[in-house]
Write a structure and sequence with these properties.
The complex is a heterodimer of chains A (about 100) and B (about 170). Chain A has about 100 residues and is mainly α. Chain A has a single domain, classed as Helix Hairpins. Chain A is built from three helices and no strands. Chain A is elongated. Chain B has about 170 residues and is mainly α. The chains are: A mainly alpha (about 100), B mainly alpha (about 170).
Chain lengths: ~100, ~170
Amino acid sequence: MITLQEYLTVAALLFAVGLLIVLYRNNAISILMGVELMLNAANLNFVAFSRHLGDMGGQIFALFVIVAAAAEAAVAIAIIVLLYQNLGSVDVEKAHNLNG
Amino acid sequence: MGAEKVAFYLFSVLTLGGGVAILYSIKLMRAVVYLLTSLFGVAGLYILMGADFLAAVQVLVYIGGITVLMVFGLMLTGPGQFRNPDDRRLKAVSSGVSSLAAAVALLLIIRRTEWLSAASGGLPSEGTTASIGHLLLTRHVFAFEVASILLLVVLIGVALFIRLARRS
C-alpha cells in the first residue's frame, strides 16, 4: 500500500521540475511544457487526495483541469505562432515591446 | 517489496526523469518525446491510484492531443527554433535556487502536516467511469456545461485569432 505522502512527494518534485523549466528556459514552447508538468503535478495531488478521502470530487476536478489545460495549450500555441510571425523568434527575452 | 511498490517507483522515475530530461535536452523535438514519457508516467500513477478513467483521458488528451499540438507549434515556428538558446549563468543559478526552495518548502509541508487518516471504501472498486459519468450529469452538471462552452470559445477564438492576425 502506497501512502498519501509518497504520492504528494512525487507531485511536489514534479512541480519543482516544472517550475525550474519555466524559470530557466527562454524558448516559449519549453515554457509551455513546464506549465503542463506543473498542471500534472496539481492533478496528481487531486487524485491522491481523492483516493485518500474516498471522494470522487478530486477526480472530477482533475478532469476539469485537463480540459482547461487543453484549451490553454491551444491558445498558447496560437500565440506562440503569431509571436514567431511578428518577431522571427520564440525567445521570450526578445518579446519586450511592452516594457516601459 | 510488492509489485505495487515496484510499479510506483517505476512510474515515478518515468515521470520525474522525463521532466529532468526536458530541462537538459538541447533539441526541442526530443524534449517533446521526454514530455510524452513524463505524461505517460503520470497516467501510470493514476492507474495505481485507481483512477482508470482519468488515466485513459490523460493518454487521449495529453499524449494524443497536447504533445501533437506542441510538435505542430515547433514545426510552425521555423527550423531555427529547434534548439534551445544558450542560457546565462545568473539565470540558471537564480532559477535553480528558487525552484529548489519551492521543492524544499513543499516537502517540509508534506512531512510536517498530520494528514487525516484514510477513509476506507468511498471509491467504487469496479472502475470509476460509471460514477464519474453519473456525477458529471448530476452534481457537477453546471461545471460540465461551462467546460463545454469554454472549449467552444477556444475553438472559435483561436481560428478567429489566426484569421485576423493574417489579414492585418
